[in-house]
Amino acid sequence: MTEQPMVRFENVSKRYGTLTVLDGLDLEIKRGEKVSVIGPSGSGKTTVLRMLMTLETINDGVIWVEGEPLTHMQRNGKLVPADINHIRKIRAKIGMVFQSFNLFPHMTAMANCIEAPITVLGMKRADAEARAADLLEMVGLGQKKGHYPSQLSGGQQQRVAIARALAMRPKIMLFDEVTSALDPELVGEVLEVIRKLGREHDLTMLMVTHQMGFAKEFSDRVCFFHAGKICEQGPPKELFGAPKNERTQQFLRAVLEAG
Ligand SMILES: Nc1ncnc2c1ncn2[C@@H]1O[C@H](COP(=O)(O)OP(=O)(O)O)[C@@H](O)[C@H]1O
Ligand SMILES: [Mg+2]
């Protein structure tokens, strides 16, 4: 028996009015797999992550997480629209880190990392603090627990955001261009944390990125998005080394010339 995919997009479409953003997307991600998503601006990359995070509705198709549909649930043998508890249960499996950090500005690094574990998971404060301290240590910020976001660099804020997402014990981590808002000299420290996560944790990771070098070295598979579809996908060596599709070739040429 083949193992159930961790995530599966089945013929998923998303429209805003007359604009079709995703057009019958099929995508499967295995447990523990590290998948990078690349592609031009506006091709639907962020929308894919936001739908999986249940921040966007789906027009057509089904997203499955460990075999359960995100938007539907079984009741008396029938599939009915999901209620809030079902959505919360599935969403608890997923953590997301955004381009713009999105930390709570009035809370310290520690407070950012314990808020949801206490209010959503019902953890005891002492337990939540112990776990947050470990995670902040893991991202190299053991000395900055009491700092507010405004007292931290962009790279440090992004590392707090990663610790905060991990504090909810997700099985799946989503990263949306998490280094794009950073000064170039701060990019490396954030990528290093992601590298470490990939090595030391049994996480499934889906990452939208413009860091082609990182995508090449880190991912099991790279998907090139174009106009709401996966135009080409494959192991990074193949996709970067010998792209088959003309659109992929054009995109990679343009990115390499710019960078
Ligand atoms: N809330 C929204 N309302 C209308 N259009 C949107 C909305 N969010 C995204 N879009 C449009 O959907 C398309 C895909 O957006 P997005 O997923 O953010 O692309 P990417 O992350 O690949 O740059 C873009 O054309 C964008 O303008
Ligand atoms: Mg985007």
TrEMBL record:
Pfam families: ABC_tran. Gene3D superfamilies: P-loop containing nucleotide triphosphate hydrolases (3.40.50.300). GO terms for molecular function: ABC-type amino acid transporter activity; ATP binding; ATP hydrolysis activity. The keyword Nucleotide-binding applies. PROSITE patterns: ABC_TRANSPORTER_1, ABC_TRANSPORTER_2. SUPFAM superfamilies: P-loop containing nucleoside triphosphate hydrolases. It is a peripheral membrane protein. It comes from the Bacteria. Keywords: Amino-acid transport, ATP-binding, Cell membrane, Membrane, Nucleotide-binding, Transport. Residues 7-252 form the ABC transporter domain. It is found in: Cell membrane. One of its GO terms (cellular component) is plasma membrane. PANTHER family: AMINO ACID IMPORT ATP-BINDING PROTEIN (PTHR43166), GLUTAMATE_ASPARTATE IMPORT ATP-BINDING PROTEIN GLTL (PTHR43166:SF9). Belongs to the ABC transporter superfamily. This is Ectoine/hydroxyectoine ABC transporter ATP-binding protein EhuA. It comes from Mesorhizobium helmanticense. The lineage of its organism: Bacteria, Pseudomonadati, Pseudomonadota, Alphaproteobacteria, Hyphomicrobiales.
